[in-house]
Specification:
single chain, about 375 residues, alpha/beta, TIM Barrel, 13-stranded mixed sheet, globular
């Protein structure tokens, strides 16, 4: 069995090995050395998941994070307050693992909503169990959901996720639509074994009023089986979809949006493609990420992480702690690399791209 990238990141602290802030402008915003400003915050809240997607998690799942190492709802709310109130964050999304695996998810959303009134608060989920919790989440302040759905063929879904749970996911999609969590976005990772069903998935999304986005598989799988030559590229997908649908390119809704959009059969529905590998958009990235343990990741493909949880739990004066957290977060983002390198041909140049020490399931999307 291949080695599994579960993740022991390189932690930075403010007292040793902290990133240099030389040349950083005098601004509270999360600016980096290339002039990008992070306004989109992704917060992973658990490593647990009810599926075992081959492009994300090993069959046995990820090692459990001790409960005491997870950020608490109060700590998450505090970080959201600082991010929105001081650092200029304008969008907050919870990820996992699977966020619905946290029993206190509604409290997390509620505290974050109180800390950030008026800011979109969303969640990336596989939707298993969402039909049972959607109302409490909406009442807590959840604005929208992104639902992972790679196939509407039950056998293909079970093969890819290692679980026969498609009916449960579809029930969650219907619950999100009924609850008014619009627009309901569907995320489908492009895999060779599900490419033939891509058109059926798009037809299903159009029929149900969902916005589908296909995502090129990134080298973040725990089993480390990703190979550049096996990648289902955006161009190949467009060719397959074009056999059934009339697609017209409309570009991106804003420069920082990861998905390029195509109008489907004249509209109004569109389909998006996030071509992270073949059409890298690193130059316009506006994201900052927190892991479930409370560390900042400036880049999805980076390994350096800056520990905010230790600062939050240091027991110091609240204002002084907040200032230390802000400074650490700003320093981490100032050191953000320009690009991740997975868009280059690793076969021709093996040194052009190095895998991350954590897999997607351990990082959060």
């Amino acid at each position: 069995m291949a080695a599994v990238a579960l993740g022991m990141p390189t932690l930075r602290s403010r007292t040793r090995g902290a990133p240099s802030t030389d040349g950083r402008p005098d601004t509270a915003a999360l600016v980096d050395r290339f002039g990008r400003v992070a306004r989109d915050l992704r917060i992973s809240i658990t490593e647990k998941c009810s599926l075992r997607c081959t492009y994300c998690m090993p069959a046995e799942g990820l090692p459990a994070i001790p409960r005491e190492d997870l950020l608490t709802p109060t700590e998450i709310g505090r970080l959201v307050r600082l991010a929105v109130g001081t650092l200029g964050i304008r969008d907050v999304r919870f990820t996992g693992g699977e966020p619905l695996m946290r029993p206190d998810l509604a409290e997390i959303v509620r505290r974050s909503r109180a800390a950030a009134p008026g800011i979109p608060i969303s969640m990336t989920t596989n939707a298993i169990g969402l039909d049972k919790r959607v109302h409490e989440l909406v009442e807590a302040g959840l604005s929208r959901v992104n639902i992972s759905l790679d196939s509407v063929d039950r056998e293909d879904f079970a093969r890819l996720t290692r679980r026969d749970r498609l009916p449960d996911v579809l029930a969650g999609v219907r619950a999100a639509l009924t609850a008014g969590l619009a627009p309901v976005k569907l995320n489908a990772v492009l895999m060779p074994e599900t490419l033939a069903g891509a058109s059926d998935l798009l037809a299903w999304a159009v029929d149900h009023g969902c916005h589908l986005r296909f995502i090129e598989q990134m080298p973040l799988d725990a089993d480390e089986r990703w190979r550049r030559e096996d990648l289902v590229a955006a161009d190949r997908l467009l060719s397959v979809l074009g056999e059934r649908f009339d697609l017209r390119a409309v570009g991106r809704e804003d420069p920082s949006a990861p998905a390029e959009e195509w109008l489907v059969d004249g509209g109004p529905q569109t389909v998006g493609i996030i071509a992270s590998v073949t059409r890298s958009f690193c130059g316009d990235c506006d994201r900052t990420r927190l892991t479930a343990e409370g560390t900042v990741r400036s880049c999805l493909f980076g390994n350096d992480e800056t520990d905010l949880r230790a600062l939050l739990r240091s027991g110091g004066d609240e204002q002084a702690v907040d200032e230390a957290v802000l400074a650490a977060w700003q320093g981490a983002m100032w050191a953000k690399p320009f690009a991740h390198g997975s868009d280059r041909d690793e076969l021709a140049d093996p040194q052009s791209f190095a895998r991350t020490e954590r897999s997607m399931g351990a990082i959060g999307g």
